[in-house]
Amino acid sequence: MITKACTVTALKVGPDDGLGEGEFIAYASVFGNKDSYGDIVEPGAFTDTLAEWNSKDAPIPALWGHNMSDPDYNIGHVVSAEEDEKGLKVRIKIDLENPLPGSKAPQVYRLLKGKRVEQMSFAYDVLDGGYAERADAAGGEKESYYALRKLHLYEVSVVPIGANQETEILGVKSAARVADRIAEDIKAGRVISAKNETELRTAYDSLGRVLAVLESDEEKASGHTETKDEGGNVKSEGLGFNPSVVDSALLDAIDLELSLA
Question: Do both 243 and 228 map to the same domain?
């Protein structure tokens, strides 16, 4: 499952905008917009999944920050969703009636009304996608992108602006997807630039350092590790753990994923 965010456009919130209390309208996805991963959501990508949701006796969940594990972050549901010429337009009802202690719904509604959050996001799987080309913004050379033609929608979320620990983790998780695309490029005969090849090799080394530290930490947890002294004799000793090594390697991997996307 993957997530994708976009800046909220045409945001309407509550009675001041002619809606019911706790309701808002926004675009969860915009068509034709190339994002940092090189993806473009195409018109019709949500047609089948919206029809599937409409056939269910259950609404599309609305969450805060894609938190599916904590019911306090399940802030409401999608009242209606449709594709128009611009993108995926959703009307959401936030749970304001008798909210349970700990519910994030009232605060999220205040943030929306105060224009203090400006992004929507959605969780999905790609059912049909592939590489395509189009003229770049300057109308000159063609640019390649990954066309998202058919998606399975899991939920929509209101998300904060800017990077945070969660978005960094999601970036690392999506590195495998980027790697698959690069492999597909090579198989199709596309040439990988020298710069990207260098970055790939750097990431390979970085991820190797992460795995080495993790394996060492597991050995430490077991109580001992075996090492050899200068005479070749096996000795047991405690193993130090340097979190900065993990942090550095993860940051290298994240930087690679972003630069190649």
Answer: yes
DSSP 137: T
**Among the three residues 103, 138, 161, which one is the final residue of a domain in this structure?**
161
| Structure tokens belonging to residue 129 | 């996608």
Whether the CB-CB separation of 82 and 74 falls below 8 Å is answered with no
Is 88 within 8 Å of 81 (Cβ atoms)? yes
The pLDDT tens digits of the residues spanning 112-121 come to 888 888 788 8
Give the span between the Cα atoms of 219 and 212, in whole angstroms: 11
> Which residues pair with residue 226 across a beta bridge?
236
- For residue 217, what are the domain limits? 163-261
Considering the domain architecture, whether residues 65 and 173 belong to the same structural domain is answered as no
Token pair listed for 47: 């047609």
pLDDT tens-digit series, residues 150-181: 999 999 999 886 333 333 444 454 555 566 66
| Total number of domains in the chain | 2
Compute the distance between CA of residue 207 and CA of residue 128 in angstroms, rounded to an integer.
30
**Are residue 20 and residue 96 in the same domain, yes or no?**
yes
Cβ atoms of residues 26 and 8 within 8 Å: yes
pLDDT at 116: 85
Residue 56 to residues 101, 197, 198: CA-CA distances in angstroms?
29, 46, 48
Same-domain pairing of 107 and 137: yes
Q: What is the pLDDT of residue 180?
A: 67
C-beta of residue 124 within 8 angstroms of C-beta of residue 154: yes
| Cα gap 93→76, rounded to integer Å | 6
- Longest CA pairwise span in the chain (Å): 82
Domain C-terminal end among 130, 145, 161 = 161
Specify whether 139 is located in the same domain as 170.
no
